[in-house]
Amino acid sequence: MIVSSLRRCSLCLSSHSTIPIHSPLPYPPLLLLIPLRFLSVNPNEEDSPTLSLLVETLGFTPEAALSVCGKLRTNNSENVGSVISFFKGRGFTADQIRSMVRRFPEILRQHPERNLLPKLEFLGSKGLLGPDLGEFISSHPVILKRSLERFIIPNFNFYRTILESDKRAASPNIAIAPNMRYLLDNGVSKSNIAALLHRDDTVLHSSRARLREAMRVLKEMGLDPKKSTFQHALMAVLRMSKSSWESKARLYRNWGWSEAELLSAFRKYPLCMAVSEDKINRVMSFFVDRMGWRPSLIAEHPILLTQSLEKKTIPRALVLQFLHSKDMFEKHYSLAHFFKMSEKAFLERIARYQEAAPHILAIYKDEMNKPR
Length: 372
Description:
- By secondary structure, this protein is mostly helical.
- It has 21 helices and no strands.
- Among the domains are: 4-34, no CATH class; 43-172, Transcription termination factor 3, mitochondrial (Alpha Horseshoe), CATH 1.25.70.10; 307-372.
- The protein is elongated, with a radius of gyration of 32 Å.
- Belongs to the mTERF family.
- Pfam families: mTERF.
């Protein structure tokens, strides 16, 4: 209907022989008044069965369905219906199918039994079933475009060697495979890569240039890619801009750390560079100004910078103050260890002071329960 109207308009314009060829038209051409989105639509597409299926079966708005039809470039509504029925028959919700079609419209051109079924069966055999399968495919539908033999199975096997779990290996974002291989090729242990995937896989989405620079910097600092601290170092460096790194390093130097102490602290516990500058100032001020510690002692135990001041450090400091006032704290005992030990170990230590233990616990719990 739209196309035929355009043809009539063009004929009408060509019949006005009284208008000179090179003279400006006395009014804008009618074609310019027609919304451009209709120019890419096939004749009768607005009334096509495919568009109706998208609207009525999957809940697309007419505008969104029209956009999908334009990208799909097929009038084979029978195959489109078969694809929708195929996914619904396997427990996919309308929302999940709509998400898949929006992200990857070409999925509606796939042959259900020949192209789609073998891939879903493979993923299902590795533990992705029911809601898990629907959630994964709706988020990563482009995987169904990939070859089962040349891409899906080889990448699954690669992930399997890293994660040592069929179900977990079936679900990572396929975009990070090249970066994972790069880390492996450069000496990063499988356990570190698996930990990165578990803790924060966003760092594995970094550009190759940024990842390469991070690896260069960390190796120059002497960090071993096979040690568990390397994963934390990589996260710290990749999450931070160069200016932020330099600002925090300057702050530590202002508190009295030498370059050697700064490097040593980062090697021991890289997350000391991930805390905010405000947190660095508050922790250093507490230990140096209030507790009277040497700054180098904190550099020897950088984990203290990442612990909660309010929920761990200050309550234990009050207990330590009480023990000193009663001359009960053993002089040979490590002060840093007193703040670093686990909650269980800390409570067991307090229990040794049988007569004073109830009072110590009261001090500790009162400080822990204060509103912040």
